[in-house]
TrEMBL record:
One of its GO terms (molecular function) is zinc ion binding. Keywords: ATP-binding, DNA damage, DNA repair, DNA-binding, Hydrolase, Metal-binding, Nucleotide-binding, Stress response, Zinc, Zinc-finger. This is RecA family profile 1 domain-containing protein. GO terms for biological process: recombinational repair. It comes from the Eukaryota. The lineage of its organism: Eukaryota, Viridiplantae, Streptophyta, Embryophyta, Tracheophyta. Residues 84-240 form the RecA family profile domain. The keyword Transmembrane helix does not apply. It comes from Crotalaria pallida.
Length: 481
């Protein structure tokens, strides 16, 4: 009794072991195993699936006792359980944007983790979601949603709700004790539960302070069991620490059903919501919001949101080119900026484009298009803080560099789509047709594409846009400049 138990937990994946390993045996990352001490205060404590299980009396959301459940026939499980396919709808432009990311409405009994840097807008997002669910109602019946905060007082949440113009039937509660929270919430049988945040709650009888790895894991497991046994969907906020702090949500990703990350640039009001794990849908849709004085709003002109002011103005600078990228099922126009500085050593500074890709494009421009970039410093930047992960942006990168090098601006009604090969040839990219149509819809005059793209185009009208197929970089330079 009172003996201290030592174990090691991987800060990357949460793998727990009784001994230290140089390389995590689960995720194979080196140097991530951290030591934890846990004093055994109770003989009845035991471990199930690596998690601490307490004595009786903590609540029914703790694991079922042996023998309580029997294996069920598939037919019996499915009978009368059509609610499994039913989702709590989220409507309106804001609701649609959230639904897009989670793959439909909220799934009953699911546990969703919403991560993001402090201040990015997680509490705002979830308060708005809570308000929407309670407004939607449950067949006209009163249908509360409970918002529990361990960070703010109910007055503070009330103030925020007031600012957001929320008037729906939400219950606010401020507590840090998971057992207390779940008891009271269960009593209300709400449509959904929001817990803000995992770092501020604790489970009595478990060692460690709130926010520590053990508490974070145990509290999340308790919330998961609560969600599964009551069918109440639980939305959980977690502050992420980019360095992958041991108590950060990385560890929780394995426990929860859905992991959403909210991101935003410091000086921009745009917020992006992305699913990185989703047991009920895909993970490649992106939700885009704008943080306004009255909360988050869905962005209506999403395709153009990554263009800078200059690009939308008439005055154009040299070194700018518009790329057309896909994220999930959506098409975005983003602006690539290049600056070539002659007379300096060939240093390269790249922001938003993988350095190796940028190097390749610059080398191809030197070798295949004859640009004397070797004596130039080249700076590249993607406006908006996005990272250009698609090769479809190669051509715009090359065009921006050419424009800066030649000091000839590219008219701002031209867009570029295409991958560049080592021979300077333009190559096809996926979903060419969809990209071209987006560009046409936005009123562009010209779209430069690989020669082969002509075949991908249907017979539909492209407004007044000219689609110019080019074989290689030399063709492009002759067409544009
Ligand atoms: P918050 O939701 O508290 O962030 P998190 O929970 O992720 O820490 O939002 C923080 C920022 O959002 C804060 O700086 C103020 C801003 N904000 C608005 O701009 N408009 C609003 O209507 C609200 C509620 C917040
Ligand atoms: Mg908050």
């Amino acid at each position: 009794k009172g003996k201290e138990k030592i174990y090691w937990v991987c800060s990357n994946c949460g793998y727990t072991a009784g001994q230290w390993w140089g390389v995590c045996r689960s995720c194979s990352v080196a140097g991530t195993m951290k030591e934890f001490h846990e004093s055994k205060t109770n003989d009845t404590d035991s471990k199930v699936n690596g998690f601490l299980v307490l004595e009786d009396g903590v609540g029914s959301w703790l694991p079922q006792q042996d023998g309580e459940m029997l294996p069920l026939r598939l037919a019996e499980v499915n009978r009368g359980l059509n609610h499994l396919h039913w989702r709590i709808p989220l409507s309106g432009s804001f609701g649609n944007e959230v639904s897009r990311v989670i793959g439909g409405g909220l799934v009953p009994g699911s546990l969703t983790l919403v991560g993001g840097d402090p201040g990015v807008g997680k509490s705002t997002l979830l308060l708005q979601i809570a308000a929407m669910i309670s407004e939607e109602g449950n067949d006209g019946e009163a249908s509360p949603v409970v918002y529990v905060s361990g960070e703010e007082s109910i007055e503070q949440i009330g103030n925020r709700a007031d600012r957001l113009g929320i008037e729906s039937d939400i219950y606010l509660y401020s507590s840090n004790d998971i057992e207390d929270i779940l008891k009271k919430v269960r009593h209300l049988s709400p449509q959904a539960l929001v817990v803000d945040s995992i770092q501020t709650v604790y489970l009595k009888g478990i060692m460690g302070s709130p926010g520590g790895i053990i508490q974070v894991k145990e509290c999340t497991s308790a919330l998961l069991r609560f969600a599964k046994t009551t069918n109440i969907p639980v939305l959980l906020i977690g502050h992420v620490n980019k360095s992958g702090d041991i108590a950060g949500p990385r560890v929780l990703e394995h426990i929860v059903d859905v992991v959403l990350y909210m991101e935003g640039e410091k000086y921009s009001s745009h917020r992006m919501l992305r699913a990185v794990k989703n047991r009920f849908g895909s993970t490649d849709e992106l939700g885009i919001f704008e943080m306004s004085h009255s909360g988050l709003q869905a962005v209506s002109n999403a395709s153009e949101m990554f263009l800078s002011e200059q690009q939308l103005d008439s005055e154009i600078l040299a070194g700018l080119a518009v790329a057309v990228i896909m994220d999930g099922s959506r098409t975005f126009l983003i602006e690539i900026q290049a600056l070539c500085l002659s007379g300096s050593t060939g240093s390269r500074q790249v922001n938003g484009i993988p350095a190796s890709r940028a190097d390749m494009i610059i080398s191809v421009l030197i070798k295949q298009a004859g640009l004397r970039l070797r004596e130039n410093a080249v700076f590249l930047n993607v406006v908006s803080g996005l990272t250009l992960t698609e090769t479809a942006g190669d051509l715009a990168v090359a065009a921006a560099i050419c424009s800066s090098f030649l000091e000839l601006p590219i008219p701002n009604d031209i867009a570029f789509i295409g991958e560049i090969g080592l021979g300077g040839e333009l190559r096809m990219v996926p979903r060419m047709e969809k990209r071209i149509h987006t560009v046409a819809k936005l009123g562009y005059r010209m779209c430069i594409v690989p020669k082969a793209a002509g075949k991908a185009l249907g017979t539909e009208s492209l407004e007044k846009m000219e689609v110019v197929g080019c074989r290689n970089l030399k063709d492009v330079i002759n067409t544009v400049f």
